[in-house]
């Protein structure tokens, strides 16, 4: 297990929060609540890097972003630029 996981704010909440089902209002509210947990997390960046490094993007909210947000063209371009540094 990655060392950063032990310090993750999500360790304090139900893991199901980070995996909303559906696209309606309840799922969107759940997604926003998961993102609130991520915003207060001290290891948000390592979490996001871990999700982005997976050969098959994991579902759910990781590092404060949904799977769709992590797949966005803008996000991929920024990631490539960061990798070149």
Task: Describe what you observe in this structure.
Keywords: 4Fe-4S, Cytoplasm, Disulfide bond, DNA-binding, Iron, Iron-sulfur, Metal-binding, Transcription, Transcription regulation. Belongs to the WhiB family. Its cofactor is [4Fe-4S] cluster. InterPro entries: 4FE4S_WBL, Whib. It is a single chain. By secondary structure, this protein is an all-alpha fold. Helices cover 49% and strands 0% of the residues. The termini are far apart.
In short:
The protein has 85 residues and is mostly helical. The protein contains 4 helices and no strands.
Please give a handful of descriptors for the protein shown.
cytoplasm; single chain; globular; 85 residues; mainly alpha; iron-sulfur
Strands, helices and their partners?
Elements (H helix, E strand, L loop, with lengths): L24 H15 L4 H10 L13 H5 L1 H12 L1
Q: DSSP helix count?
A: 4
Roughly what is the average pLDDT, rounded to an integer?
Answer: 87
Oligomer: single chain
**Beta strand %:** under 5%
Taken in chain order, the helices and strands follow as HHHH
For the report, how would you describe the main beta sheet?
A: none
**Overall spatial form:** globular
**DSSP strand count:** 0
Q: Which stretches are poorly predicted, pLDDT < 50 over at least 5 residues? A: none
Distance between the termini: 27 Å
Structural class: mainly alpha
Tell me the radius of gyration.
13 Å
Give the count of structural domains: 1
Helix content: 40-55%
Region (Disordered): 51-85
Function: Acts as a transcriptional regulator. Probably redox-responsive. The apo- but not holo-form probably binds DNA.
Protein name: Transcriptional regulator WhiB
Main location: cytoplasm
């Amino acid at each position: 297990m990655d060392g950063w996981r032990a310090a993750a704010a999500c360790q304090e909440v139900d893991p199901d929060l980070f995996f909303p089902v559906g696209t309606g209002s309840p799922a969107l509210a759940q997604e926003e609540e998961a993102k609130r947990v991520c915003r207060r997390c001290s290891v948000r960046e390592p979490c996001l890097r871990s999700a982005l490094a997976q050969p098959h993007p994991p579902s759910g909210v990781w590092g404060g972003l949904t799977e769709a947000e992590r797949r966005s063209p803008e996000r991929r371009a920024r990631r490539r630029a960061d990798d070149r540094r």
